Amino acid sequence: MKNIDRSLLQASVMPDVNGYFGEYGGRFVPPMLEPLMQEIAEAYEQIKDDPVFIEELQYLQKHYTGRPSPLFHAKNLSNKLGGAQIFLKREDLNHTGAHKINHCLGEALLAKKMGKKKIIAETGAGQHGVALATAAALVGLDCDIYMGEVDIAKEHPNVVRMGILGARVIPATHGLKTLKEAVDAAFEAYLKDPVNQLYAIGSVVGPHPFPMMVRDFQSIVGREAKEQMLEMEGKLPDNLIACVGGGSNSIGLFSPFLEDLDVNIYGVEPAGTSFKTGDHAATLTLGKPGMIHGFKCYLLQDENGEPAAVNTVASGLDYPGVGPQHSYLKDIKRVTYESITDHEAIEAFFELSRTEGIIPALESAHAVAYAVKLAPKLGKEKTILVNLSGRGDKDVDYVVEKYGKEYGL
Ligand SMILES: *Cc1c(COP(=O)(O)O)cnc(C)c1O
């Protein structure tokens, strides 16, 4: 049982009025954006307890996304490892194949209620872009997705998907032409017409209220998991594990358990190929407090204090910052942050595919890999609940091309 001051714990659950979790978060935006962010915060405060909004969102979660997602006891894998029992929260079975649809539906509905005509966002590998384009098509909003020219060339299937869904993919052509430039381009476009557009951020990052809002929309994952675990096992899980990029799927799972101090919680970051700057994205493990995209958090920085280059086999985890709530949860030691290498993630990708017939996203494979390490150290009566944030269909070509030989392909 962990011993954590209740008042520290309280501050880990809700940000203060200015959007701070401890010293992290806040809203560092150009003066022109300040009233717009305030407007979004106020609109969100209004709708989040509105029964009509809640009912509409619940209807879509059930009949469109396919919630609740199942909780699956991975007996083959558990038996093979010979320790704790592993349970998988199957976010990979959601419509569009990952957890991102949870907050995209929320953000699209919010945009609609605010009278916006268009929803815009940046995307790196295209996962957030596809989920948002999907929600925009459903809710009836125009959708512009900003994407680096380099990523557009690399992520062809997702670019095509967004087009089919009716979204416009707009290339960011300056600088390195990847995710950071896409964010710059999207912000610029947002500033040109903030009245008709809503910028839908893709994780629990960015200026207040986004980290709180995206967290709230993702918390359905943890609420369902808690209920399902109680139903299946009659007790809470002993351990939770989720991968951490910006931190949305993980905080979604963790949130409803933060005050259950008997539950050990692990966030798993990508250690990439080495701990040299540029070879990983292990922000909470190796970063220092800093500023990125309008908020304060742990940040991987170069010599000049600028966001450092990052790299991991799972492009969805490729972010030098991390959500402010995670930054605070690390400091108060409520969540333990670990890291997993590219190699370990690939091992876990094949292990889960071949023991359970489930191909995980490479991002989720990081969480599975940590479960594979932890389970044998624990007794058979213990349980580990892993958030399987997405499915691996998007990764199969890349994995086979790069690692196929080692696995007989
Ligand atoms: C985007 C993505 C992630 C990482 O984002 P978080 O905000 O940290 O959850 C993890 N898993 C999958 C499948 C993703 O698409």
UniProtKB/TrEMBL annotation:
All copies of domain Tryptophan synthase beta chain-like PALP, residue ranges: 66-390
Annotated keywords: Amino-acid biosynthesis, Aromatic amino acid biosynthesis, Lyase, Pyridoxal phosphate, Tryptophan biosynthesis
Pathway: Amino-acid biosynthesis; L-tryptophan biosynthesis; L-tryptophan from chorismate: step 5/5
A GO cellular component entry from the record: cytoplasm
Keyword Hydrolase: no
Subunit structure: Tetramer of two alpha and two beta chains.
HAMAP family reported in the protein's UniProt record: Trp_synth_beta
Family of this protein: Belongs to the TrpB family.
Name of the protein: Tryptophan synthase beta chain
Organism expressing this protein natively: Saccharicrinis fermentans DSM 9555 = JCM 21142
